[in-house]
Inverse folding.
C-alpha cells in the first residue's frame, strides 16, 4: 500500500475514534456519530487500497 495513502486513511480512522470518544465523554451524540462515520470511511478506504495492492501483485 502506498505509504502516504495508508497514513492518511489511518489518520482518518484515528481522528474518527477521537471524535467518538470525545462525543461520548461530553454526552454529544452528534459528535459521537460523526466520529463513527469517519472511522468507517477511513476503514473502507484502507480496505479498498489493500485490495488494489493485492491485485497489482
Amino acid at each position: 500500500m502506498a505509504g502516504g495513502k495508508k497514513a492518511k486513511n489511518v489518520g482518518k480512522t484515528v481522528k474518527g475514534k477521537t471524535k467518538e470518544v470525545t462525543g461520548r465523554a461530553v454526552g454529544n451524540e452528534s459528535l459521537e456519530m460523526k466520529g463513527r462515520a469517519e472511522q468507517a470511511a477511513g476503514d473502507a478506504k484502507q480496505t479498498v487500497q489493500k485490495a488494489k495492492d493485492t491485485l497489482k501483485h
